[in-house]
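Inverse folding, one chain.
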């Protein structure tokens, strides 16, 4: 029990630290895409995710180096840590939902999907959704490093290069999100979701622990002696996915801010109803959600990188993406059909593929 409690509370401490750093460290102030539901004004944000992330990693590194906390402490306490994050996620989800006025609907639905749209804290100094993503990303990175450290401590004589590759690619994924934190202000979670169990528990518990499921399942095992070409294929798939996902997100971000501005040298082509416009060139001419294909490819690359293509554990992560993003595309399609009407119909005709060009 005495050993379980520190593990249980570790995610609470990490999130508290991340929150404190987010409030205290300097941040750039930007105008977002979402409007305040009462005033109609565009929301303003303080963004300092990358700085908070590196300061937290620095603290973890200093603790490991000085021997205060073994490098693989989070691995050793992964079960109690996951339980602590799960509990905190549940408590905070309930608190966020139950302290907000009801929407006249089903309580269970409210608990899952939320009531508040974009709650802010400390007079707008912190945005709840952006903090949650930052907290989840930071703990995920700490878990990945600690799980990999465990592998090196146990199999230091012949470590698996696949684990190094997996952590390197995953670190790229996490840092990429933080580098482009501003682009996230233009995404579905920010403009279409409310804050309930799905987002709160998802960011605080699912994101930092489930996303590490591949490494969790193999960190204890010896080097699988995977061929080098498998690592090369995994890297190529990962970066093909990254190009699609990041490219599409940046192209849309650029288009929403200035519909005339060229992206990667290409002048955007758009469908218009005289008032609104739908981008239909570049990434957005390949399929209507080619960014989702990119996310799934990145996840597949991460699974393959571990060098055990026949093990189930690493594939749980890409399978989860398929389960998440295929229904999400349907939801977004319905939302856009309702919002854009005939313009969306024209976009559907012009770009018939939902996610995978030529296939689906
Ligand atoms: P999108 O970035 O695809 O955003 C969809 C919205 O973009 C639509 O609702 C519409 O909003 C607008 N839009 C759609 N088509 C067009 C078009 N042709 N021209 C202009 N605007 C268009 O989806 P998400 O917000 O869901 O995802 C954002 C990113 O986050 C993606 O890369 C996704 O893969 C990633 N993601 C990552 C997850 C993870 O766990 N790593 C989980 C979920 C998503 P509007 O009404 O504003 O026009």
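Residues assigned per position:
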């Amino acid at each position: 029990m005495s050993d379980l409690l520190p593990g249980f509370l570790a995610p609470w401490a990490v999130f508290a630290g991340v929150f404190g750093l987010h409030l205290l460290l300097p941040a750039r102030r930007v105008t977002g895409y979402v409007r305040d539901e009462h005033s109609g004004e565009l929301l303003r944000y303080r963004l300092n995710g990358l700085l908070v992330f590196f300061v937290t990693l620095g603290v973890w590194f200093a603790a490991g180096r000085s021997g205060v906390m073994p490098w693989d402490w989070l691995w050793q306490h992964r079960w109690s840590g996951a339980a602590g994050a799960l509990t905190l996620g549940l408590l905070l989800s309930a608190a966020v939902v139950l302290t907000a006025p009801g929407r006249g609907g089903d309580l269970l639905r409210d608990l899952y999907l939320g009531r508040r749209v974009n709650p802010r804290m400390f007079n707008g100094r912190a945005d709840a959704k952006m903090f949650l993503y930052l907290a989840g990303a930071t703990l995920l990175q700490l878990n990945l490093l600690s799980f990999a450290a465990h592998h090196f401590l146990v199999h230091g004589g012949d470590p698996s290069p696949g684990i190094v590759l997996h952590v390197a690619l995953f670190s790229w994924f996490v840092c990429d999100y933080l580098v482009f934190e501003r682009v996230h202000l233009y995404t579905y979670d920010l403009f279409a979701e409310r804050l309930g169990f799905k987002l709160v528990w998802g960011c605080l518990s699912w994101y930092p622990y489930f996303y590490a499921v591949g490494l969790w399942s193999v960190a204890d095992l010896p080097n699988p002696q995977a061929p080098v070409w498998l690592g090369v294929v995994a890297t190529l798939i990962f970066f093909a996915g990254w190009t699609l996902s990041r490219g599409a997100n940046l192209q849309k971000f650029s288009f929403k801010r200035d519909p005339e501005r060229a992206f990667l040298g290409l002048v955007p082509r758009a469908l218009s109803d005289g008032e609104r416009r739908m981008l239909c060139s570049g990434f957005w001419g390949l399929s209507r959600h080619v960014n989702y294909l990119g996310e799934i490819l990145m996840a597949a690359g991460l699974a393959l990188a571990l060098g055990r293509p026949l093990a189930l554990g690493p594939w749980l992560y890409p399978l989860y993406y398929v389960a998440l993003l295929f229904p999400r595309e349907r939801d977004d399609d319905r939302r856009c059909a309702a919002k854009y009407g005939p313009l969306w119909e024209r976009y559907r005709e012009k770009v018939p593929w939902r996610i995978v060009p030529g296939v689906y």
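The chain has two domains: 1-163+194-204, 226-360. The pocket of NDP is lined by residues 187-188, 191, 245, 249, 252, 255, 278-279, 284, 289, 291-292, 295, 328, 332, 335-336, 339, 347 (CB under 6 Å).
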